[in-house]
Specification:
The complex is a heterodimer. In chain A, α12 runs parallel beside α13. Chain A has 14 helices and 21 strands. In chain A, β20 and β21 form a beta hairpin. Chain A is globular. Chain A is of the alpha/beta class. Chain A has a single domain, classed as Alkaline Phosphatase, subunit A. Chain B folds into 5 domains: 129 residues; 127 residues, no CATH class; 139 residues, Ribonuclease Inhibitor (Leucine-rich repeat, LRR (right-handed beta-alpha superhelix), Alpha-Beta Horseshoe), CATH 3.80.10; 75 residues, Immunoglobulin-like; 152 residues, Jelly Rolls. Chain B is of the alpha/beta class. Helices cover 30% and strands 20% of the residues of chain B. In chain B, β2, α13 and β3 form a beta-alpha-beta unit. Chain B has 17 helices and 22 strands. Classes of the chains: A alpha/beta, B alpha/beta. Chains A and B meet through α11 and α13 of A and α12 and β1 of B.
Chain lengths: 484, 684
């Protein structure tokens, strides 16, 4: 006797499994005689997009997210006027009623403050780079620096959520999840979306990050980012409990899969297949994750390239080496977060420390990918969720001042996979407050990144609760000027 | 009165729509028995006829202004005039015989003619504005030329003419001929238009073709006109260059002088054209995809509708020739082949040469040698070749030179020599070779100091201290006497056991690396647990931990000062009085304090220790002045050791004087600041 639910689900089995195979496309397991399920080499996990909309320039992304809001005025956007007019009031004609955070809304004055660091021009492009980024300065001809980013959010969490999911409110899928869903994975032994976190020395106890930033939202849970941690348990709950050997685990999985298979035959719920493949993925990750995380075999010259921090697991530098190793293994989206860029006070000391964390490793990552031939199809993105104000939060002294959050203009850079190298795009006014040329909105940035991967951001949608959702919502223009 | 003519494209849609409605109404009356439409139809036909007459008038006016193909124009014109005449007839017939339509003999033929003429007139009109082949030509932008070797390409037919076709010839063609100029054939270009020649060989800036493109877009004379697709800067440079080089119609690129800037554009051009090149390759079939994927081959099309495929076999150590044979089934389509980190060797790689359209070949960290490279010269589209980490030598470079299409070459960690790379680069100046990174880019780095790990900072008996640095072959040196360690200091080879208060200082060293900075950590042996402690004044309500006794519980706080281990005083000094179980000889007192200047917390200014045996008469025993920091620093905690002349004591008074206000360099100088303490320890 069939009940209504079973009838409905089995009559939709055709549609259900078809949809599933398009989501998963994996044939990880094959039934052999006697019901034993064996691993097979699969053709990779294919994405929901049957074919890309454009020929892709990049096959994978390494997103070096600088959490907290790096000060563009102390790193890339050189504004000598701010030094000349240090301590003078920010003219209202420049601020034009821009809303303030709760941290400076009580301030009666907004004294302009220039950078304490000195700037020089580097490379063929003549891009200005601050002297706290000496290594970045040396490779500036590999970078496409966008000085005219702007966002709508003014506080950390909404701003990061906006960058990652296209919405300030939590709940939408992260960029990596979208791409994992759309493009699938090229490596069936590792997740298509990997996440690595590090804390900066500039503000070691700043805001934490929430795992929903790499969440899958309404997409299938297969596509959520998997956090790799330093230490002996890189992915939580992945290792077998002590006393269980790999063969026992294999036997257990085979039998569980056989039972699940039976359940799938009866009910046809695609979630069951997903569960089977998730178990298989976890099983393979038991060997693939330690393999990728074990950087002992890296030669000394690689450690020297990425700098001294790279010998310490869990640092940004060590994560950069891991990012390269994941890229070599065709992981689609590698998301790093480096926390601690939130210099509300004590900026000259803290920002320099923070810059030192990321300078050499980021430059080394670009050059390391280049020498391996991976830079031509890997897109590296470096940037935070917003910029910092041109006026000081708190009192200015010779050695100390602070900067509040500034959404109206900030700087990011990209390198590799299809962006023009040695380019500075966009311009801000002499106060470094408003954009004067080629503004790039967060949605424009997202549209551009998707274009580079061969995806038309307007066509790539997911229907959920009656609405077709996009990463760029109903906005976004591809910034063609920066495409090589 | 041009405006009347310009309204033509707008007005024509009125008679089309209205007469179409009339036809539909007539059909509904005849076949749908909607007799009630009949009275209204007269009105509809009247409006239809009237608007078609207006359309004809505007059309005649427009014909005087434009340069349209004469044949098309006259056909369109007469059809339209006939149609409006017939629609007047139809209206008249309908009006007159409305009550008895069977008497209207001419009505039905008139309505049929209207339908027919409407289609013909519309089509002719469309042909004039959009080009005669607009309907039938597939993709308008299709320009299927493939430039395999740019040097062999013809400057005019392969480069210049496609630009003219894309950007000029929608107006300057024989059926439209704006300004009497036609640019579809060499002869017509030479003839020029109404205003004479369009180009002067050798003088781009005097040629109207280039001059007009440079005019501001708002100018009437600017070409292509506002609203049409503009020339890109690359296209404009190419046109100028070609005219400067004599505007020859039969020369090859290699016969012309090509400056670097143009070379760069042409290279791009070549790439774009090869991308687009449909060399007649059909996309792989669904069943081919399926069979490849079932064999475990990752294969993806490069863009929707593109026949080209990317095949990814990287990181596989089980590649066999039978697997590669399967790839050969789509040999025409494979554009990118990833064989990085695989077991591919020369034997297996022989398959690659059978993929004629290969553009990217990734062989890094595979087993191939020079033998494979020899076979690659037939791959006439190969643009990117990755040989990093392979055993190819200088010998292979002669074969690489022969791959004309190559743009990117990766040779890092191969057996190729510096001299070989240099030679290749001079032979192929535009080839981008990635060989090795400049040595001065990443200078030799300093090591990190080891982490000094121990169960606690305070211990009562002995403590095991270990040094940790997760790096191979590194030598760790340490001292326990407070001196700075160097290469002669003790080498760490296992946990250090300490049994007294000790300052551990460490350094790491390794050949080829700069030595690390010194790392240090103070361990305090607290052999005595005081019986009780009182503090005065009471700590701030927000930071009172578990009361005064938290100072003697041997539990350290951390820089996260809200964790309930710290006693905080705002703008105050503090005094603690410790009572010991019995009178002992005391030699030192240690006070552990916090600084976090962003949170207005600073180290104490001074510590004074006095002792007593009865609890009332205290004798001063020792003190410590602590300098105020000279600038902002990262949050930290520190043990301040106050050495005293060893003396017997049962009661110990510790006066800790705070800084009270922020120092001058602080963002809020002069504001009340905090004193934070977590432990006070007594040593014998």
């Amino acid at each position: 006797m069939q009940n209504r639910r079973a009838f409905l689900s089995s009559s939709s089995i055709g549609i259900g499994t078809a949809a599933l195979s398009s989501i998963l496309g994996m044939s990880f397991f094959k039934k052999e005689k006697g019901g034993i399920i064996k691993e097979t080499n699969s053709g990779g996990a294919r994405g929901a997009l049957d074919a890309l909309h454009f020929a892709p320039k990049a096959k994978r992304i390494i997103y070096l997210f600088q959490s907290g809001g790096p000060s563009q005025l102390d790193l890339f956007d050189y504004k000598p006027l701010l030094n000349e007019r240090r301590g003078e009031e920010l003219p209202e004609s420049v601020r034009k009623g821009q809303r303030l955070t709760g941290m400076t809304s009580g301030q009666d004055s907004f004294p302009l403050v220039g950078s304490n660091y000195s700037f020089s021009q580097y490379g063929q492009s003549g891009a200005y780079v601050s002297d706290v980024l000496p290594y970045t300065a040396k490779i500036v001809d590999e970078l496409c620096i966008v000085k005219s980013m702007y966002t709508e959010a003014i506080n950390h969490d909404p701003a990061i959520t906006f960058f990652q999911t296209g919405s300030q409110q939590a709940g939408r899928p992260s960029m990596g999840s979208w791409l994992s869903y759309g493009l699938g994975s090229e490596n069936e032994d590792l997740p298509g979306f990997c996440v690595l976190l590090s804390r900066g020395t500039g503000r070691p106890f700043g805001q934490p990050l929430y795992s929903r930033l790499w969440g899958n939202g309404f997409l299938h849970s297969l596509h959520q980012g998997v956090q790799f941690r330093s230490g002996k348990d890189p992915v939580l709950y992945l290792n077998d409990p002590s006393g269980m050997d790999r063969q026992s685990r294999r036997n257990m999985l085979d039998q569980v899969a056989a039972l699940n298979e039976k359940q799938l035959q009866e009910f046809g719920d695609p979630e069951i297949s997903t569960r089977i493949s998730q178990y298989e993925m976890a099983y393979r990750m038991q060997t693939s994750v330690p393999d990728v995380m074990n950087i002992e075999g890296e030669p000394d010259h690689i450690y020297q390239m990425y700098g001294p921090d790279s010998t310490v697991p869990g640092t940004y530098a060590a994560n950069c080496i891991l990012a390269r190793r994941l890229a070599e293994r065709d992981v689609r989206f590698i998301q790093l977060y480096h926390m601690g860029w939130d210099q509300h006070d004590n900026l000259p000391t803290a920002c320099a420390a923070q810059a030192k964390d990321i300078d050499q490793p980021s430059a080394a990552l670009v050059m390391d990918l280049k020498q391996r031939g991976l830079l031509e199809d890997t897109l590296i993105i470096w940037g935070g969720e917003f910029g910092r104000t041109n006026y000081s939060q708190g009192t200015i002294t010779d050695t100390s001042f602070g900067r509040d959050h500034h959404p109206r203009s900030f700087t990011i850079w990209m390198a590799g996979g299809g962006v023009k190298p040695g380019m500075v795009y966009g311009e801000t006014d002499d106060f470094g407050y408003n954009i004067t040329e080629n503004p790039v909105h967060v949605h424009d940035f997202q549209a551009t990144v998707m274009k580079l991967l061969g995806v038309d951001h307007e066509k790539f949608t997911y229907k959920y609760q009656g609405r077709r959702f996009r990463l760029t919502d109903v906005h976004g223009k591809v910034v063609n000027d920066i495409l090589a | 009165m041009d405006i009347i003519g310009r309204l033509h494209p707008l007005i024509i849609h009125l008679p089309i729509g209205i007469l179409m409605l009339a036809l539909l109404m007539e059909l509904s009356i005849r076949f749908g028995r909607k007799e009630e439409f009949r009275p209204a139809l007269t009105f509809v036909l009247a409006v239809g006829a009237l608007t078609s007459i207006i359309a004809v008038i505007t059309g005649l006016n427009l014909a005087d202004q434009g340069d349209y193909d004469a044949t098309l124009l006259s056909r369109h014109q007469w059809c339209a005039i006939a149609m409006s005449a017939i629609s007047v007839l139809a209206w008249y017939q309908h009006r007159r015989h409305q009550s008895d339509m069977s008497a209207a003999k001419l009505y039905l033929p008139a309505m049929c003619s209207i339908g027919l003429l409407m289609m013909i007139t519309g089509h002719l009109g469309g042909s004039m504005t959009h080009g005669a082949d607009f309907l039938t030509a597939g993709k308008t932008s299709a320009d299927p030329i493939s430039i395999i070797d740019i040097d062999q390409a013809h400057a005019f037919t392969d480069i210049i003419q496609p630009i003219l076709n894309r950007k000029c010839n929608s107006c300057h063609n024989p059926s439209k001929a704006k300004g009497d100029l036609i640019m579809t054939t060499v002869a017509e270009i030479e003839t020029g238009g109404k205003e004479g020649k369009v180009l002067l060989a050798g003088f781009p800036l005097k040629s109207p073709l280039i001059k007009r493109a440079h005019l501001p877009i708002e100018e009437k004379a600017h070409m292509p006109p506002k609203g049409k697709k503009q020339l890109s800067s690359d296209e404009l440079s190419l046109l100028s260059w070609w005219i400067k080089e004599g505007a020859a119609y039969d020369k090859k690129i290699m016969e012309l002088n090509v400056p670097d800037s143009i070379r760069l554009i042409l290279d791009k051009y070549q790439q774009v054209e090869t991308d687009l090149a449909s060399i007649g390759v059909e996309p792989a079939s669904e069943s081919q995809f399926k069979s490849l994927r079932e064999s475990g081959i990752k294969v993806n099309p490069l863009g929707a509708g593109s026949p080209w495929l990317e095949v990814n076999l990287s990181h596989r150590q089980d590649i066999t020739s039978s697997l590669l044979k399967k790839v050969r089934k789509v040999s025409e389509q494979v554009s990118e082949l990833q064989l990085a980190n695989t077991n591919i060797d020369d034997d297996l790689a022989s398959t690659i040469t059978q993929l004629p359209h290969l553009r990217k070949l990734k062989l890094q960290n595979s087993q191939i040698t020079n033998k494979t490279i020899k076979q690659l010269k037939d791959l006439s589209y190969l643009e990117s070749l990755n040989l990093y980490g392979t055993q190819v030598t200088d010998e292979a470079l002669d074969d690489i030179i022969k791959i004309k299409s190559l743009k990117q070459l990766y040779l890092w960690q191969s057996d190729v020599s510096d001299a070989g790379v240099e030679q290749l680069q001079s032979a192929r100046p535009l080839l981008q070779i990635q060989y090795k990174i400049d040595a001065d880019l990443f200078g030799d780095a300093a090591l990190k100091p080891p982490v000094i790990a121990a169960a606690a900072d305070i211990f009562s008996d002995t403590l095991s201290v270990s040094l940790e640095l997760n790096f191979k072959n590194v030598e760790l040196h340490y001292t326990l006497d407070g001196s700075d360690p160097d290469s002669t200091s003790a080498v760490y080879d296992g946990p250090i056991i300490i049994d007294r208060s000790t300052l551990v200082k460490v350094i790491s060293m390794k050949p080829g690396w700069q030595s690390s900075e010194v790392n240090e950590r103070q361990f305090v042996k607290a052999s005595i647990v005081p019986q009780s402690i009182t503090v005065s004044p009471e700590p701030h309500d927000k930071y009172k931990a578990g009361g005064a006794k938290s100072l003697i519980d041997f539990t350290k706080g951390s820089v996260q000062f809200t964790n309930g281990h710290w006693l905080g005083y705002e703008g105050q000094h503090m005094t603690a009085t410790l009572t010991l179980e019995e009178e002992v000889k005391v030699s030192a007192v240690t006070v552990s304090a916090l600084k976090a200047d962003a949170s207005y917390i600073h180290y104490p200014r001074s510590i004074r220790v006095s002792v007593s045996s009865d609890g009332t008469a205290f004798t001063s025993a020792g003190d410590l002045d602590i300098p105020i920091a000279s600038g902002p620093e990262v949050p930290a905690l520190k043990n301040f050791l106050v050495k005293i002349q060893p003396m017997m004591a049962k009661y110990i008074k510790v006066e800790v004087r705070g800084q009270l206000v922020n120092p001058d360099w602080h963002p809020a100088p002069g504001a009340a600041c905090w004193l934070f303490l977590d432990e006070i320890l007594v040593q014998v």
